[in-house]
Amino acid sequence: MESVGAADRTLRHAEQYLTFASNFLIFFQPPSVIMEFVNKVPDVLAKKLTSLGVEVKGVEASLSDFINLPSVDSDDDFYQEILIPEPIRQKPVVIDTVNFDVSAVFVLISSMTEENGTNYRFRSSLLEMQAEEERKLPARPMLIEAMKDKRLIICRSAYNAVREIIKTVAGASEKKRAEIFLDKIEIVEDKLSQRIERLQTGLKITKRTKVGFFKNLLTNYTRFNKVQIQVIFGSGDFYKAVTATSNKHFVNAASQQGVSLAVILVQSRALSEQKQMELLER
User: Fold this and answer.
1) How far is CA 181 from CA 79, 100, 163, 244, 257, in A?
2) Is 82 exposed, middle or buried (0-12, 13-18, 19+ CB in 10 A)?
3) Domains of the chain, earliest start first
């Protein structure tokens, strides 16, 4: 029967699309597969596609609207051919964890993101630029909102990097805020998910991409460039957490290799207290 063959081909295509989707997760779940039928779709085919996890769009109609069935037996044959074994359906994943990279921690503790924190001049063109951005669009409120009622984690590499950086770069108030925040957050062991581990040898994920953004983050402090940023993202991916970060370069580079990372992108804010000067005039 021609309709049986067409239905079988449609099912095979659907399974191929679902397999492809499962290899390109978005927020730890495969993207939706939608099949739209501009004409009517047999109801039994629509039900089968739906059971596989495909969203079906189109007007459903009974099989008799498509062909004249010579007997009940042939109808049964059609059902037998189309009713293949059910696959295991993936349960929806609820993301209730936020993973912090170094840049996201700085957004929370930098004096620049405090009230009136931009009412200074700074001994750095980068800080002046960030202060101007902060006046237009404060970076902290969005991150605070994203943290509400979430489990907060930081991998050990990121935690150690923050600790080392604040020893010399942070001002007194920034150090206090860092201590308060780091006491609240859960430290987890460094992990690499398989997706991120595969990126380590990718052409697009270069050493500069992995660690170069720290040069801007720390201005002249570059001795922490060896922090392995892929471990921070890999830990977020491993623990099924959304990673708060300002590192758009790594996110974009991963995307170019077909890996969609679950991230909260924040604006970069360096620690500013040691470099701020009182305004003489505005």
Assistant:
1) 60, 11, 12, 15, 34
2) buried
3) 2-82 (no CATH), 97-278 (3.40.50.1010)
Q: What's the DSSP call for residue 99?
A: E
Q: Could you tell me the two tokens for 247?
A: 């590192």
Please give the full DSSP string across 161-174, using - where no structure is assigned.
HHHHHHHHS--HHH
Dist CA 50 CA 56 (whole Å)? 7
- Tens of each residue's pLDDT in the chain, 282 residues: 455 567 777 777 777 776 666 555 666 566 777 877 877 777 777 788 887 778 888 777 776 666 654 554 544 554 444 444 444 455 555 678 999 999 999 999 999 999 999 998 888 888 999 999 999 999 999 999 999 999 999 999 999 999 999 998 999 999 999 999 999 999 999 998 888 888 754 444 554 444 444 445 544 333 444 347 889 999 999 999 999 999 988 888 888 888 888 899 999 999 999 888 765 444
Burial of 170-196, coded b for 16+ CB within 10 Å and e otherwise, reads bbeebbebbeebbeebeebebbbbebb
Q: What's at 55, amino acid-wise?
A: E
